[in-house]
Every structure is written in C-alpha cells, then in structure tokens.
Amino acid sequence: MADYYTLIARAISGLEPSATGERRRALYERARVAPIAQLRGARPELSESQITRERLSLEDAVRKVESEAAQRARSARKTYANVPSPPGSAPSASSPRPRPPHGQEPERQDPRQQPNPRADAPPKRFAESFRSRDALAAQAKRQAEAAQAKADKERRETEERIENERQELIQQLRETERATREQDETRRQRDEQEAARIQNAARRQLAREQLAMVASPAPSLAPDGRLDAGPNTVYDAVKDSDDLPTLPLRQRTIIKTILSDLPGNSPKYLKTSLQSYDDELKVRGAQPILGLLKDMFEIIDAAVGDPSARQDWLGPGLRKAFEKVAENHHILVSHFPLDPERENLYARTLVEENEATGNSLSEPFRQVAQATQNANEAGLTTDDFLRITDKMAEFAKIISTLPLSTPRSSGAPRTQHKFGAQIVVIRPEDRIRIDESDPPISVRKRIILTGLGFFERVYNLLGTTVTIVGTPEGLALLRELKEAIIALLNFIRH
Fold it and tell me: Do 265 and 359 have their domain in common?
C-alpha cells in the first residue's frame, strides 16, 4: 500500500498557507487520477476489492491533509491580523496615547481658562477621516469574518464530500465482496450439481450393466441370425437334484386343478398368470426363465393374498392348493445357486414405486412389444422372443393396475406363506439365503428391474447386429428399446 499521506502533504506544502480551498481541491483531484490509473494498469491485475481498499486509503489521506491545511490557513489569517502597523501610519482611535518624557508634561490648564471646544474643534474633514478609517476597519473585520466563514464552509463541504466518497467506496467494497461471495456460492453449487450429475450418471450406468448381466430372460442370436431369448446361461443355471425332474410336472398338475376350480369372480389376471406359469414349465421344464417365473408367481401371490380374497372367492380347498403351489415354487427356485446374487442386487436397487403406476409403467413394455411384433413379421425375431416381450407387457399392464402395497420378497424362502396359516417346511440345504438387512422386493419393483435388465441387454446386442438394425423394423425396435430404458431408469433412485 502506497504512503498517500506523505505524497499529498508534500504537494500541499508547495502552496502558500493562505491558498483557497478551490486550489487545494484541484490538487486533490489530480492526486486521485494518477494512482487509480496505476492501480488499474497494474500487472498482475488487482481485484476490484483491492482497488477499492487503495481508494479508501487515498481518501483517508486526502481528508487528513485537508484538515491540516485548513487549520494552517486559519492560523495564517489570525497571524496577519495581529501584525503591527508600519511607521507613520495613523494610530487607531482605540490606541492609547504615548506618555511624554518625565518632566515634560504639559501644564494643566484651568478648565475655565480653556478655549471654547467648539471654536477650537478640528476641521470637519478630519472627523470624516476618522469615521472613514473606522468604517474601513469594520469592513475589513466583516470581510475577514466572511472569508473565515466561507473557508469553514468549504472545509465542511470538503470533509462531507470526502466522507461521502469514503462511504460510497465502503459500500462498493461491500457490494463487491457480496457479489464475490454470491459468485463463489453459485460456482460451488454448480460444481456440486455437476459432480452429482456425473455421479448419478455413473451409478445409472453401473445399474444398467449389473441388471443386464443378471437379466432373465436373456437375449441371444439364433443360428439363422434372428433375435431370440431364453434363460440366463449363468444366473439361471440349475443345480440338479433327485426331485427336480418331477417338480415341474407336479407343479403343473396342481395349477391345472386350480384352473379347473377357479371361481368366475376371481381376478381375471390370476387365471392369465397361472396359465403363463404353466406354459413356462411346459416349454422349459426344470430350466425355466427364472425371471419370468418369479414375475408370474408374484402376481399370483398378490391376488391370493388380497384381504378380500377369502371372503369373495378363495375357499379352504383352493387356498390349500395355492399353498402347495407356493411350496413347490420356492423349492424350484432353491435349485438356482446364483439367484441369491440377483436377489441381493434387486434388493439393493432403490425404486420409486409410487411413481410406477398406470401408463408410466405399462407403456414402455407395450411399445417394445409392438415394435417386436413388427420385427417378427419382418423375420427379425423368433416366436419365443415375441412371446416373451408380449408376456412382459401383459405382466406390466396387470401390475400397473394393482394397488401399492408393502414390498415383500416372494423369491426369498419363507416358512409361512401368505396363502394361509399352514407352515411350509423347506429343507435347510434348499433355502435361498439373502441379506436380511436389504429391503424386500415387491412385484412392482421386480417387473421394473427385470424389464430394465432385459431391454438393456437386447439394446446392447442389437447395437452390434447390423443385419437387424439395418432394416426399418430393426431400427424402430432399437429406438423403442432406448426409450423404454430411459423411462424405466426414471424409476431408479440414486
């Protein structure tokens, strides 16, 4: 910081002590211009707050120098007023007469012998001279007082102006600092938002990759180059046992019995789900597409577990049959050793289920199924692939109409089923154990994650298959898959 006081005081000392306020103010203005120009041209550049602080220091120096200069001007005027008159000048009327030397006093005359004062009075012009001198003295006094008052007024105005400029500079400094803080806060928020966006994008990409890896059903290319789908070769791999070959047949027998005795007032989607479950076991036997099978069972479980089911249509015998279906389902699922890893992934993935209702849930599946229908007619997909996309669209439509309920995990082993009060005993070696701290998986959450993983995997496969995406139908399917992935990702919470 420069020593502005010394520089300005040295410049003011070059003026005469009686210099007017206008001359001093002119010098102050010149003193302001040069330092500010130097500050703004400094390299490296100074910030506005640094320049403002320098200006405040300059104004404080001006204020101090002006106060001292005004004091010197007043002292100079007082000194000039007390200087004695030069020799030969007429004494003022108030000056005492000098006493004559001792022994030369004039003789006192008897007043009675003094001449008539009127006769001996000085001429009139001398009296007028005395009065003129007194008037000039009074006028000089008034002029001095007026000059002093003017100087005091100029000093006060200068001090007020300097103080106002100082306050303005302080306000500018505060505003600059406030603006700097706001810019810093805005930049910080923008950086945090960008970091959160990047982090969310990374999490979404990771979720897409993980869900695609465990997807069931899983897409593939048939030998003739058409798009096909079937079980996930890794996560749907089955562990063989003595009871596994006959388990699908036993399950299908119970389902057929239920379908034959199912009352007409039962939910319509229950019959559809039972038939789809039976079809999957009929086509694939002990190696079903586990993801689809679980989706079907969740819908069946939701219908049977409805509080009004026992009063409306679920009799004791039918309830016993559904309990047996649940027991067989969990025994079948227990033969898939890698399924717990998929269940753990599903449990850890957070889904906004309250938003996944109506068309927002069913429409992405319907659009993909429609595009698949067109691609199938063009010979680009197998009938199995078309059947799977149709089933997923049908399940999504059913689930989109179901009321929101407390999430459960029907894929996890349970010792007591919602179907009834009977205890279902499962052998310890057949249990599927998942992390109990993870939240359970609802039917709505399951269809979202199953669909997202399947669509992502199909999309990636099509991206490397020029023979399919090179056709209008294949390109349309690719486009609908991308839209469906985006729609389902909106339900994922990070």
Answer: yes
Q: Cβ(236)–Cβ(336) under 8 Å?
A: yes
Instruction: Tell me the residue range of the domain where 285 lies.
Output: 215-493
Q: Which residues in the chain land under pLDDT 50?
A: 88-90, 92-95, 119, 406-434
Are 393 and 450 contained in the same domain?
Answer: yes
**Does a structural domain hold residue 320?**
yes
d(C-alpha 177, C-alpha 183), whole Å: 10
For the CA atoms of the chain, what is the radius of gyration?
53
Phi/psi of residue 102, nearest 5 degrees: -65, 130
Q: Indicate if 341 and 261 belong to the same structural domain.
A: yes
Q: pLDDT at position 277, please?
A: 96
d(CA 326, CA 320): 10
pLDDT tens digits along 233-286: 999 999 888 888 899 999 999 999 999 999 999 999 999 999 999 999 999 999
**Is 124 domain-assigned?**
no
Please report, to the nearest 10 degrees, the dihedral formed by the alpha carbons of residues 55, 59, 62, 66 taken in order. 170
Among 185, 205, 237, which residue terminates a domain? 185
Q: How many domains does the chain have?
A: 2
pLDDT given at position 113: 54
Q: Are residues 392 and 485 in the same domain?
A: yes
Q: How many residues does the structure list for the chain? A: 494
Residues 387 and 437 in one domain: yes
In this structure, the answer to whether residues 294 and 358 fall within a common structural domain is yes
Q: Is residue 407 a contact partner of residue 440, using CB atoms and an 8 Å limit?
A: yes
pLDDT of res. 226: 96
Cα–Cα distance for residue pair 205/494, rounded to 1 Å: 11
- Using an 8 Å Cβ cutoff, are 67 and 7 in contact? no
* Contact present, 4 and 57 (Cβ < 8 Å): yes
Q: How many CA atoms lie within 13 A of 366 on its CB side?
A: 10
